[in-house]
Amino acid sequence: MTRLTLDQAHDLAKSILLHNGFSPAHANAVADTVTAGERDGCASHGLYRVLGCVASRKAGKVEADAAPEVIDQAPSIVRVDAAGGFSQLAFQAGLPLLVDKARANGIAALAINRCVHFSALWVEIEQLTEAGLVALAFTPSHAWVAPAGGNRPVFGTNPIAFGWPRPGREPFVFDFATSAIARGEIELHRRAGKAIPEGWGVDAQGQPSTDPNVVLDLGAMLTFGGHKGSALAAMVELIAGPLIGDLTSAESLAHDAGSKSSPYHGELIIALDPQRFLGGATEQHLARAEQVFESIQGQGARLPSQRRYEARVRSREEGVEIPEALYHDLKALLEWE
Amino acid sequence: MTRLTLDQAHDLAKSILLHNGFSPAHANAVADTVTAGERDGCASHGLYRVLGCVASRKAGKVEADAAPEVIDQAPSIVRVDAAGGFSQLAFQAGLPLLVDKARANGIAALAINRCVHFSALWVEIEQLTEAGLVALAFTPSHAWVAPAGGNRPVFGTNPIAFGWPRPGREPFVFDFATSAIARGEIELHRRAGKAIPEGWGVDAQGQPSTDPNVVLDLGAMLTFGGHKGSALAAMVELIAGPLIGDLTSAESLAHDAGSKSSPYHGELIIALDPQRFLGGATEQHLARAEQVFESIQGQGARLPSQRRYEARVRSREEGVEIPEALYHDLKALLEWE
């Protein structure tokens, strides 16, 4: 393993992206999120993603110097046209106006359009909780997941994320796929020649299957939580697709045309301001929310992001470790071709 | 079974509520929702609920002539103080301003406070989809459900409902508890002396239990979908509790003090206007949403409210049937004591 401080990790990511043609603004915004992923122990959203960024650029699937355009769509709606660039810079561009609108009106929405998306949603959610706001985020992905009772993919892994500000503490944040499991997890089982647990996918006839090849190539993945999870996946498909005038997971997969790049589509973020709901009683009611967290943790159950925050404390002190092979692959992207 | 036309069902509910001291406005609003439940084949939200309404009144747990107060809280927030009355009239009171704000600003929220709540959320959601809006609704209930990894109740059955308008068709609507199953379902198993399936609840040590007595009296119910469902239940607890300055499920159960009445707390509804997101392209993008529904139904999977809409068509033609015993119990509430 190779140990890096968080600054070194950020510099490495940023210099690779710059060297491979990304504008300074994009290089910085992407380096921020992959460093945050590595820092929080989420290797799947960490430095490893820089390899994919460069590959997407070489495949012509992302605009390396797209300038996001912020549109004041309605009193409580901000729209950002990412113009084919990565989502991170588009989110940064829209964030100040989203925060202003939520604070002025109580609730506001940010619709990001035409972005290439691979970021974990909690990175964005935490920027809203830091501003004292409650936040929700939704995005489709590529159509890999069948509806409950079906046998053919319609939904993406369609994540839902939520954040609640906790004064003086890390926020309450969750961010999960509405699929039963990440697609990458099924791919790992295929590579290892191992069966997958029941509940992850179905065959072409819609029957439960534990064969990763069947689920990935012939049948479909399943949502978590049966028909309830399937209903939520449909909701994400609708509100982060047609509602914001952007692609569904099926349309995004068709657009990808087999290049295996990150999805190209939209994202919906909703921000609510406790101050506008509660006025002078905000502090008192946020304190009541703490009782909910205490009754969860007081019985030995965990809050959703607890492991991530523990990793964060460690990484700030000790830096992060990445596999030697990954470090060499990343370094190779700094050489002139 | 006793057969009633929908008008007869509505008249019966309304006259019982009037006879038992509810104001005409409350009697009418409650009769609307219980008739809708009966019509859609949801007996558990049908005429049977009128018995509970009268019992709640006799127990002093609901204000029978509360006049909801509508407060223009912020440019995109309506608040309604239900003043201890049933939620239905409070929702009716807040609906016009919520629709206005959503249409003007793109997204808006309705917070209902201090209401006694037993209504299905889809009844409210459908009034928003009828206005062409996308809608979400959340409410806590009584603390019966443990967090994932825990053994003590923190959450209510905390339903989430969603609606999407479909021009010329019944809307796409779902409305489900974040608990694995309704509490009433476990009570039915207890009465029948039957074991419950694994996954519905835990014992006092947090171990899976199939004994309804253990789950109801000593342990706790579980959420659907493991830690993901548990995270969603926590979200409902927060955004429809402290965010709107109202009771959590634990506080609502304490307030009930063993009377077994309907929960007394708040509700959060969010409405989004596709016209403000999409402008002139609204029709085109709503048509793209229809492709999502077609790819679900085209593979033989069902949309969430399909059974309800089928029952609705039948009930409009043939009326509804309720058990003779229920009919007699209801009729008895029309006699002078």
From TrEMBL, chains A, B:
Reaction(s) catalyzed by this protein? L-proline + NADP(+) = 1-pyrroline-2-carboxylate + NADPH + H(+); L-pipecolate + NADP(+) = Delta(1)-piperideine-2-carboxylate + NADPH + H(+)
* Listed Pfam families: Ldh_2
Q: Does the keyword RNA-binding apply?
A: no
Gene Ontology molecular function, alphabetical: delta1-piperideine-2-carboxylate reductase activity; protein homodimerization activity; pyrroline-2-carboxylate reductase activity
Keywords linked to the UniProt accession: NADP, Oxidoreductase
What biological-process GO terms show up in the record? proline metabolic process
InterPro entries tied to this protein = Mal/L-sulf/L-lact_DH-like_ah, Mal/L-sulf/L-lact_DH-like_NADP, Mal/L-sulfo/L-lacto_DH-like_sf, Malate/L-lactate_DH-like
Quaternary structure?
Homodimer.
Family per similarity comment: Belongs to the LDH2/MDH2 oxidoreductase family.
Q: What is this protein called?
A: Delta(1)-pyrroline-2-carboxylate/Delta(1)-piperideine-2-carboxylate reductase
